[in-house]
Structures
1.
Amino acid sequence: MKTKLPFKGISSTALHSASNNNAEDAHLVPIYATSTFTYDSTEEGMERFESKDKEKIYSRWANPTCKAVEETIAALEAFGLKDANGKQLELKALLHSSGQAAMATMFLGNLQAGDAILSHYSLYGGTYELMHKVLADTGIETIIVDMRNVDEVAKAIAENSSIKLVHIETPANPTIQCVDIEAVSNIAKATNLIVTVDNTFATPYLQQPFKYNVDFVFHSTTKFLNGHGTAIGGILLGKDIELMKTKIWKWFALLGGNSNPFDAFLLLNGIKTLEIRMERHCQNAKQLANYLQEHYAIEKVNYTGLASHTDYEIAKKQMRDNAPVFSFELKGGLQAGITFQNKLQMCTRAVSLGTVDTLISHPASTTHFSVPRDERVKFGITDGLIRLSVGIENIEDIIADFEQALEGL
Ligand SMILES: *Cc1c(COP(=O)(O)O)cnc(C)c1O
């Protein structure tokens, strides 16, 4: 393998971090659609089985196309960061079939019955349900506090000796609350707790949690990392390489949450443009948020780039720019939300986020329709709330679509 320069930028890192062991001198990493791998001799087979990398044995254990993605995202999350000895930080990543699968490996690989997770109340729905409907049944409890108040974090840890892991999701849906990763990590590390971060909304372009001594970073790669909405996927990254290759790998390989070479190929191609996409996503989001803030039909814009957002300072401290996912509140409530969504001509009506096109959803009439009103309002999902993921279309067209859809509301 040729040695590589330490890259000075994110795009170079995204394009050139996968080890180049492509068959037949292929330019792109091939889709290694194979379930098993051959070896020339018994000795070679033995060597592979004994190795902790578990490569070229069986695709549930490791696959070369998936490996190229793992190396690339690991390089992005570690970009410019140093380890405890002042050397370039090394990370090990495992690519899963979905964000949920990666999250299951992360929690189950680190916890057992009797342990508890400490987290924030504003969480991705799937995370919240995994904690309360699945992990709870295995004897792993979740304690929820407002993590933006570090005193509450410290108090919960002091009062509950069962807390083993602190899970941070920042920024989080739908009001784009941010948690101070450094502050929470410092408190957790004072008693040696495991710290995990869901970095899906930010991507390694906007935020690198490993800077703050956390142990694991998680992404739903379905979102900005893929960027084009072509595949579901999730990745788990850890800085304790030995632990990742043994205990964490065991849960990954035996629960069978591995990704597949075709999805990995799509993801790898998506990641190549991460930096330039994010630049455009973020620039568009800023302009759209400023436009919406001035609009007569809008009560409030929840965008961390506005000084009125409660977590403006935290976002500025730990993120390169503001996440291009935000929400706003229509003065006209439920009916205005429904009408606005119906009138859109260009922006896409869909849940999810992080695709190149602008995605718009009205949670009260869709994702949270079945949640009792009192319950959803508690989590910030008010009647007129619109959630959007700003795409890379030309901003003039996005604003023109909003302008006509908001008219008369
Ligand atoms: C989408 C998402 C997940 C779950 O990932 P899937 O790929 O849908 O399984 C977890 N966390 C966040 C913040 C997400 O947006």
2.
Amino acid sequence: MKVIHNMTIHLLLAMIGTFVVIVGAQTQEGFISLDCGLPVEESPYDDSFNGLTFTSDSAFIQTGKSSRVDRSIILSKQYLTLRYFPEGKRNCYNLDVKRGTNYLIAVSSVYGNYDGLNLDPSFDIYIGPNKWISIDLAGRQNGTLDEIIYKARSNSLDICLVKTGATLPIISAIEIRPLRNNTYVTKSGSLRLSYRVYLNNSNGFIRYPDDVRDRIWDPFFGSSYTQITTNLDVNNSNAYEIPKTALQSAAIPKNASGPLVIIWKPKPSNAQVYLYMHFAEIQTLGPNERREFDVILKGNFNHSGFSPTKLKVFTLFTEEPMKCDSEGCRLELIKTPKSTLPPLINALEAYTVIEFPQLETSLSDVDAMKNIKVTYRVSKISWQGDPCLPKDWSWENVNCTYVDLATPPRINSLNLSKSGLTGSISPALQNLTQLQELDLSNNNLTGPVPSFLASMKTLSLILEGNPDLCKTSLCNPTKKKKFLLPAIASAASLLVIIVVVVALIFIFRKKKVPSDQHAPSPPSVPVTDIGNNSQSESSFLSTKIRFTYLEVQEMTNKFERALGEGGFGVVYHGCVNGTQQVAVKVLSQSSSQGYKHFKAEVELLMRVHHINLVSLVGYCDEGDHLALIYEYMPNGDLKQHLSGKRGGFVLSWENRLKIAVDSALGLEYLHTGCIPPIVHRDIKTTNILLDQNFQGKLADFGLSRSFPTGNETYVSTVVAGTPGYLDPEYYQTNWLTEKSDIYSFGIVLLEIITNQPIIQKSREKPDLVEWISSMITKGDIKSIMDPNLHQNYDIGSVWKAIEVAMSCVSPSSIRRPNMSRVVNDLKECLLSENSRTGESRDVESKGSMEFSRGIYTEVIPKAR
Ligand SMILES: *[C@@H]1O[C@H](CO)[C@@H](O)[C@H](O)[C@H]1NC(C)=O
Ligand SMILES: *[C@@H]1O[C@H](CO)[C@@H](O)[C@H](O)[C@H]1NC(C)=O
Ligand SMILES: *[C@@H]1O[C@H](CO)[C@@H](O)[C@H](O)[C@H]1NC(C)=O
Ligand SMILES: *[C@@H]1O[C@H](CO)[C@@H](O)[C@H](O)[C@H]1NC(C)=O
Ligand SMILES: *[C@@H]1O[C@H](CO)[C@@H](O)[C@H](O)[C@H]1NC(C)=O
Ligand SMILES: *[C@@H]1O[C@H](CO)[C@@H](O)[C@H](O)[C@H]1NC(C)=O
Ligand SMILES: *[C@@H]1O[C@H](CO)[C@@H](O)[C@H](O)[C@H]1NC(C)=O
Ligand SMILES: *[C@@H]1O[C@H](CO)[C@@H](O)[C@H](O)[C@H]1NC(C)=O
Ligand SMILES: *[C@@H]1O[C@H](CO)[C@@H](O)[C@H](O)[C@H]1NC(C)=O
Ligand SMILES: *[C@@H]1O[C@H](CO)[C@@H](O)[C@H](O)[C@H]1NC(C)=O
């Protein structure tokens, strides 16, 4: 038995001669190896011990100063220089990475009395907006090396050093290695290394080139172990690519009938732990010999009857994070009665989970700010790292909107007054789509005020004190005063309206000779395209579904009965031809935004027809009066029913599933039945309406977009939708695809299942998705379900529905199913619920179903 203390590895002394290096045998593909503070003229060089090619860090950071350590002990070359940061609270490296790739990130710092003060620094390191680690170099003459496995959230990675006290942050080396995406996968968070060892009683560590991923393997051996080794080649081909040299030795217990035990204390003691165990049989077994043992992690799992493969690696790892008790984590390998040989283990890695909950500032804002920074050569020391986060060190002269950790902040104001700006107004500003205030006063800007500024509705723009700006006809010649842009804005929006109307005329003309309503329509003019100007008529052309305002007044009996109020106006009850009931949405005339949505909706509903989409009866477009006339849905919306606001009767599980299938069919039609496909963008329970038979239909197409072509994604300039239902990936990247609807639909399903608010502060986990995940982990299904259902449901169909919903709300869009898949799965749920109805079955007996938990084996071994 042996206790491993949770070691922060410090291996910085070069271990000369402990292993032979085959320089150049491997590729170092995707490696980033920075020797911080290295003068550019000495860059790059190959490390003489391991052949890694190091470069100077100067291209990746604009701040800080270089220095050399004062030490007589021989260090690896990369620790001889360092970068320190006398200015600014936060200084950041910015590195190019690949979004979605899992990286091993290692940062090392060796103080080496570079400043002659003999004061060991302490400081913090952040990854993007999230704190990774506090470094304290007191008593660490050999420096520190900290490692993490982190999945890149964008194509750019910020590693920031933050001053926390009197001493200056320092950094010696940054090493980044891409890992295979299918390795070291966590349920959430990143992995901080506890230890990574191979069982050998030598004292040499292993890293690149033996390890193609350049992980550092320390030797580890207990006094109660016996070492076995082989000279034969061990096949290391599995996803983890364990170095062969690490597999060629193993430990067995000295007492051949006793267990092999490894104990360690994770930090913090309640941390979630992931363990990766690598086994290979490296002894030649006789005909009657057999090695078989149980792998037991106390309190977490028991994998019985494991037999290592001959000269071939086999990796066992925890798929779910495990928790160890106050005595620490305890791994036991126990020989089974059948076995003639003691258990063995070759290599072992343990990690603890570190959560990085704060999402970065919206990617499009970050890109725009970087662009602006470069264009105007802004050299403010605070303009490094994430512009909005952490709040305390957000960029000077930039203000942001913050919602919660899971919502990327957005930039809402920018003050570049007196910043010495020259040249024209950067088009990158238009990508700051949430900007409310922009102060460019007192610079030397030239050229015209671009029209995009005018189309940013709520923007307050200050341009005074730029003598050479604003010489075009559009501009206001009096530039003494701060001027807001309503004039230009309305001119521009008029232009937008005109173009849109032209576009609609074009579309409607095409629609005038429809042969088959269900045939795919020709691609429409992209409605967002404010292309070339042309002369136009002032209203929609007439069609038979067009109503006058007088007719609208008549059909609603002078707006007698309001049914509800939506985002863009009030909905009234009405009657056409004295018989057909309709719902009339009267748009508030004020916003041109409203007009845009009005137009989008008319266009869309004219070309799509489906039983599960609310159909358009007509519209009114007369001067200021805009109205949409839909078929009447007597049973209101799904939300009202779930919340009991409709007479208090409870929708049965079966009914809920039916409505879910209906809405899924409507959405499937938009995604796959329409050419080009349509993204609804505002799927939510209030937009699912119910007809007299409780058939569900999707409504409110005001935000819908169709794609220019088939499978392409679409970058929209304004993220739209309803908070809570909004796809976080879309929100962050502005990349709009059908998958965003699928996310929203997943939220709807979760509401149908739980009848819980999407966000509820008083809940253990305020976020519905997180809350459900935690309940699922506990296997606690009854507390997930809407209590109003009184457990009157088929538990199998419930599980299935939860599974579908959870896959829809996967943070990564590629993991979400498509709508056809969702439809099929929901139909299955409905079938299994239907088969229950009428039968009396013991619901309780099936209530204990659990998601599979525990150890995962990389290739499934059959228990023998
Ligand atoms: C990991 O996944 C990302 C995105 O899914 C991909 O771009 C990258 O190439 C993958 N990396 C590796 C090493 O497989
Ligand atoms: C630094 O490394 C040397 C050589 O391995 C070792 O003797 C010494 O104890 C280490 N110092 C610390 C503080 O770990
Ligand atoms: C493991 O131990 C054996 C015997 O002690 C030694 O020959 C071998 O070099 C060691 N392996 C490594 C990678 O150091
Ligand atoms: C190693 O094992 C893999 C399959 O597990 C096999 O495809 C490969 O050929 C083996 N390599 C050697 C050198 O035997
Ligand atoms: C060896 O282990 C077995 C089983 O745990 C135990 O019964 C026995 O006493 C141990 N022998 C020695 C010498 O420790
Ligand atoms: C592990 O599982 C095996 C077989 O299921 C059983 O014999 C053994 O007692 C279990 N050990 C522990 C510690 O639960
Ligand atoms: C922008 O900063 C300047 C000082 O540099 C200040 O005078 C001005 O009021 C600021 N503008 C806004 C809109 O806050
Ligand atoms: C940001 O907010 C602060 C405090 O609310 C305010 O003083 C400052 O003027 C704002 N900055 C900009 C650029 O608007
Ligand atoms: C705005 O953002 C889009 C998408 O990120 C990008 O392609 C475009 O170049 C940006 N525009 C400017 C002017 O930076
Ligand atoms: C603008 O440029 C002129 C000369 O090119 C210079 O004298 C003046 O100070 C500049 N103004 C600002 C506000 O930078």
3.
Amino acid sequence: MYAPKKPKLRFLLKLGILIAALLVVYFTFFHYNSDGSANDATFLLPFKKPKEYNVWLIFTKVSQRSPLRYKFHNLLENILNISSVPLKFHIIVDNSSKQLAVGEISDVVSHSNKAIFYKFYDVEACARAISDIVDVMTPHFSSKPGTYYSDALFYISLGLYRIAPPSQRTALLLDCDLYFKKDIRLVFEEFDKFKPTALFGLAPELTPVYRHVLQTYKVKKNSTFGEYYHSKAISSNMQHPRGFQGYNSGVVLINLSAIRKSKEYSQIIRNETVQYLTSKYKFRGHLGDQDFYTLIGFEYPDLIQTINCGFNRQLCVWWREHGYRDVFDFYFKCQHPAVILHGNCNTKIPK
Ligand SMILES: *[C@@H]1O[C@H](CO)[C@@H](O)[C@H](O)[C@H]1NC(C)=O
Ligand SMILES: *[C@@H]1O[C@H](CO)[C@@H](O)[C@H](O)[C@H]1NC(C)=O
Ligand SMILES: *[C@@H]1O[C@H](CO)[C@@H](O)[C@H](O)[C@H]1NC(C)=O
Ligand SMILES: *[C@@H]1O[C@H](CO)[C@@H](O)[C@H](O)[C@H]1NC(C)=O
Ligand SMILES: *[C@@H]1O[C@H](CO)[C@@H](O)[C@H](O)[C@H]1NC(C)=O
């Protein structure tokens, strides 16, 4: 009768133990996402999570003839036409706008050859989920307090990590007045370039609005805050030596997992921090979340990834005619190829 020699038996035993150990490590660390949700494709790609393409839109207070209806329709049509990745749309609606959204979506789908995945979220529930953030931000960054949930809509991006399902790891929140010149895939690829500490990705504001907001602070302090981006350093000893125009929130990339994990973030959205920042910079804004991102980007630059202006090529020229003609073009210039055009302040988008 054949009996295996001892060394071979020992080898097989060791191999067995090794395999068992590897399985334990795998199921402990790789099988679940950091937020605890199971990951369907982990068996195929044990070390790489599948990419997800979550697009968030806000569609509220819409009536039959409101411009938002057409903007929403055009944006959906445009994105479906030009994009190559499987998108999931997450749409924040109120009860009456929901029916109009359904109508627009089925119209777009019937005229394209693509199916779309979408899910609705009730604006009142969203507002409730972020009411503490809204209470802290509104006195500093809203022009006039409105209704309970119209205020909240200004700050959705800051609390989206509570609204999105816990399994959702990243999100792209878009205004509806956008036009994609290129594949939305390019925007999602920017997540891969985030520095490890970044929670949000934003493109610069392309007008002197923050020069205006910060004028009181700037006369007193020799600061680069609100200054347009120079090609060379204008100050060697400051945090932002080449200037800092602030951010625009028409396109917001959000690493939801990173925010959920971040201890710093919960500190930063506290009343004390917001009070400290707004009084330090004598900052009184009116543009909601993007005012806050601008302050955070100046004070805690690690938390925001600056994506290039081609990803949010704003077109609004209002400030050119309102006291800033001499410097407007320094803010407005954008040398990167446009991926997204942003028809802000109701600017018509040239196609
Ligand atoms: C769809 O996208 C292609 C480029 O991918 C473009 O040439 C065409 O004009 C677009 N059509 C519409 C209706 O936007
Ligand atoms: C909207 O609908 C939901 C559920 O259908 C309901 O709970 C909510 O009260 C409604 N809101 C308004 C403002 O009618
Ligand atoms: C934030 O702090 C200020 C100043 O201490 C206070 O007046 C205000 O009521 C606080 N706001 C919130 C939402 O706690
Ligand atoms: C501001 O600071 C820069 C260097 O950081 C210096 O070159 C410049 O002269 C200063 N301007 C004023 C008005 O103090
Ligand atoms: C987002 O943040 C998490 C946690 O910090 C990190 O593991 C991940 O690589 C980041 N980027 C993306 C695209 O998920």
